[in-house]
Known about the structure:
233 residues, 5 strands
Amino acid sequence: MQLLNAATNTNANVSIMMNIEMSDAEGIGNICADTPSGDKTKTILIGAHSDGVQAGSGINDNAGPNYRFGIHDSATAPASTPKVALHGTSRITDLFRQWFTEQKLPWSNASFNGGSDYAPFLANGLAVGGVNTGAGGIKSPHERDQYSAMLGTGNGGIANAAYDPCYHQQCDRIRNINPFAYEKVVKSAAYAIEYMGRLNNLEKWLYPEGRPKQLEPFNRNQLYNTQSDPRLY
Length: 233
């Protein structure tokens, strides 16, 4: 009765106008595949995604509009990283650098700063590596000039601006990517995967003294300051 009386009291009522836009969500799914040949006892498991955190789709990881080609530098692995992971991590770093150099493309060093894409692996002594297009960082004038010198004037991006202003935001959508950067990052990853897949002994290549046998449960505070990286959750 109180609710009914309140509804009829026009002096105390507040009007709210809502605009609701309806749209059909496109289908999503996973693709799983394996090679028709190879040694079943020596399997390389490869994963890739173009999504991200709940705040946004995460496409920026692969092709930020004001991109750089940031190769994770093994020298920036935390001092507490198990020694067994360092050799292979260094080799993966060199592998990506080799590809970009041979393709006459610029590249930058990216730090291992605690991203959840690799932190649990490093913490357990597993070799990691990769390349990203800058995420939430800022492109320096030096980096802009470096990229312009190799890619042509006007193709070095915008100095003192974010690699991706939509990083971890809803505006991070397909229209936000740089197709050129996306293509090169994907091709570099494909090269690294095929190179390692063709090695006669990948385990020896990554872990010359033997790979870690016992993996401990991952403690997010073990190596990194998780407060500085919203991807750790």
